[in-house]
Here is the input.
Amino acid sequence: MKYVIYGFFLLSATCFCDILSTNGKIQFDAQADGQAEMTLNSTGLGIGILPSANLHLDGNAMVSEQLFVGGSSGSSNLNVNGTIGFGFQTVSENVTLSDYSVVLVDSFSDNIAVTLPYAGNVNGRVYVIKKTSSLNSVLVSGAGNLMDESSYYILNSGNTAFIEVVSQSGQWLVLSLSQNGATRAWTPSDITSAAWFDADDESTIMAGGTGNVYQWNDKSGNNRYALQNTGTNQPTYNATGMNGKPTLQTDGGDRLQIQNRTGLLQNVDGGMIVAVVKYVSGTYASNDMTVFISGGSSTGETRLGMTPNPGNVNILAGAGRRIDANGYQSFNSSTTRTSVYGSAIIEIVNADYAGAKGHHYTNGTQDATDVAFQTAGSTSDTTPLEAMIFGTSALSLPSGCQISEILVINSTLSTDDRQKLEGYLAWKWGLQANLANGHPYKNVAP
Here is the structure.
């Protein structure tokens, strides 16, 4: 029994004795691998690192309840009694953000694109982006993620604006924004369109297992979706058809029928069609059209569309139609307009149909020659435009075209809105280099 009592006293003495160091530090080797996971010395306590402060942590830390800094009271999980300092990053060229939450952008020398990381990988991360020079512009985008409902924001020239964002559920949300000098991206939602088809919006495209597109939904709010039930006449979805972005690709005889057509360019004094289209391959006749909207099938068939230049990669304005209360006027021009593929617009102008003309725009530049409308068909015809046709054997249309985006507008846009639309399409589809020098959105998106 006395040996048990002696053992108890010896063990107690061992447990309650001071831990002494002979080299000025105490190291804890929890893994028994000769590497200290924690070190306590005269400087402080280091976890995962030799300390250079009272508490030095190299790795992650979790605080289940409250943390007090500079005091011992507070009502929040993190309580700071004093100032807070942030590390910041200064940039003067295009950059994709990473570890710094405060970013100062010096745009003195040029426009700068700041790209946020993919929101789904950094849930809860906050960035504050401040423009420090009043010169040039800063475009902030979300690496394929929307920022609220916008694809990008612009910190404009002439201002030192800022934007603060947070990532949440795969999307960037705007927390605060300068009242002056910061604007969201312009999109066709800022104008009134009669029909809007966007291949880059995957939610609008309905395709079968082979990639054949049987329905393309309208984003204008008018529910003028385009439909094709016959498989051989369906275009196919190409995820990288236009500068790495999606398109609908034709293979000859492809046609989508627009539904709910009443009011589509009907009884209007002017209208426009705009499209981003790329010619790939195929055989052309002299009056072929890559993409057009048709109304009727008689001699007076009328079209709004893009005419290709055989053998080249072009987007060209080709033919158009104007309808008013007294009937309609039409023109059908096979005149080609040469340019690198990009956006092309046909603008139908003049309220007096007898003198109406069509303006062609290619990549933001109006062609020198207007096309006059010619009387065709019944003067009482008010049939709405009927279908989007990407290729049809009846007209020997080309078999290889990439269709990116199409808008139909029941009015003539102001010059400012037309140029914004051109800038939107150019920057969205990587075609800004095609815009003419002097175009207001050549160097910065609207």
In short: The CA atoms of residues 16 and 167 lie 51 Å apart. The two ends are 92 Å apart (CA to CA).
